[in-house]
Design a protein that fits this description.
heterodimer, A: mainly beta, 7-stranded mixed β-sheet, 11 strands, B: 5-stranded antiparallel β-sheet, about 0% helix, globular
Chain lengths: ~120, ~110
């Protein structure tokens, strides 16, 4: 299947600092990338939808000024958690697609575990 | 009512058993249905996807969709300890994003 690379896989930061997570589609061009957050024992919750070259669309309850998303190219999207707080500690996962038109196939990165001290 | 409902388990079975995992959903507009497998601390891995109703088989895995009942299933035959993971059902939303169930944690005991 298609490969989506996410970096870093694990990051620990101090409260108040900003953290950037990168999501890359390695062998296909992703017009759309999705950012999810997953708390322990919970399902993946969509945070925002990112289309290349345009502003991201955020889900209700997700602060766009806190979670900055940039999708500057067809192979790279970044999520920056600004002024991180301990409650932002979570597993962040990106997915990219479409791999093939009109299918539901999305491929996921390995995820980034953020711990805010 | 949540859009996608999935029993979180945990589900524990002996090696070689047939495993049945299920989800129900409320939005009749869903057309694409997926099953993802997620190992601990890893991103989800696409196992199977199905369009509309019907069955799809891939090796030991069979996915079934019953749109009339808004019910999807994943069957795993001859389950192996390596199948131990969390299995998430997902449906494609109107924006192309995926709407996930909570995931069912499966443990296959040797």
């Amino acid at each position: 299947g298609a490969v989506v690379s996410q970096h870093p896989s694990r990051v620990i930061c101090k409260s108040g600092t900003s953290v950037k997570i990168e999501c890359r589609s390695l062998d296909f061009q992703a017009t759309t990338m999705f950012w999810y957050r997953q708390f322990p024992k919970q399902s993946l919750m969509l945070m925002a939808t990112s289309n290349e070259g345009s502003k991201a669309t955020y889900e209700q309850g997700v602060e766009k000024d806190k979670f900055l998303i940039n999708h500057a190219s067809l192979t790279l999207s970044t999520l920056t958690v600004t002024s991180a707080h301990p409650e932002d500690s979570s597993f962040y996962i990106c997915s990219a697609g479409p791999v093939a038109p009109n299918t539901g196939e999305l491929f996921f990165g390995e995820g980034s575990r953020l711990t805010v001290l | 009512q949540k859009e996608v409902e999935q029993d979180p388990g945990p589900l524990s079975v002996p090696e070689g058993a047939i495993v049945s995992l299920n989800c129900t959903y409320s939005n009749s507009a869903f057309q694409y249905f997926m099953w993802y497998r997620q190992y601990s601390r890893k991103g989800p891995e696409l196992l199977m996807y199905t369009y509309s109703s019907g069955n799809k088989e891939d090796g030991r895995f069979t996915a079934q969709v019953d749109k009339s009942s808004k019910y999807i299933s994943l069957f795993i035959r001859d389950s192996q300890p390596s199948d131990s993971a969390t299995y998430l059902c997902a449906m494609k939303g109107s924006q192309g994003n995926l709407i996930f169930g909570k995931g069912t944690k499966l443990s296959v005991k040797p």
